[in-house]
Amino acid sequence: MSDAMISLERGDWQTLSSDASEIRRIVFIEEQHVPQSEEWDGRDDDCEHFLVRLEGRAVGTARLLPDGHVGRVAVLSEARGLGLGQRLMEACIHTARQLGHAEVVLDAQTHALDFYQRLGFTAFGDEFIDAGIPHRSMRLILN
Q: N-acetyltransferase domain location, by residue (predicted)?
């Protein structure tokens, strides 16, 4: 995949909400049956948002909360397996470093633990259910 075909944007919710909310609606609400009331938690205005485009089309998103938590990492099914989730996460980690965070924390769906471990995250705590989906908390210490 050529880098010319992939672009990454960082912005606030007002700037990226149209594309990001559509991706989250498809991935979380439609595919994973997350209730809308849980997906739209009212925290988006306080976050840094990231959007990845493939050939100009928005296909992935993530957000970084002010406390260094990463969340709402989603890539549309047709764009999975192309390394776009990794690019989103690298952007979140880089931004967290720029903002002076000592660590990045996230709650990973258990099926995605290996993905985050490859990025250097380690799991902690017990498995828990969020929106009906098993999760584990994970952290990456930033140097």
A: 6-143
Tell me: the pLDDT tens digits for 62-72?
Answer: 999 999 999 99
Q: What confidence score (pLDDT) does residue 143 get?
A: 76
How high is the mean pLDDT of the chain? 95
Count of the separate structural domains present in the chain: 1
pTM of structure: 0.93
DSSP 3-state assignment of 139? strand
DSSP string, 49-101: EEEEEETTEEEEEEEE-TTSEEEEEEE-GGGTTSSHHHHHHHHHHHHHHHTT-
Cα–Cα distance for residue pair 53/45, rounded to 1 Å: 21
Containing structural domain, residue 87: 3-141
- What tokens were used for 6? 């992939």
Quick one: tokens of 59? 């296909």
Q: Tell me, what CATH number does 108's domain have?
A: 3.40.630.30
- Residue 69 burial (CB count, 10 A): 20
| AA identity, residue 77 | S
Identify the helix (H) or strand (E) that includes residue 118.
Answer: helix 113-118
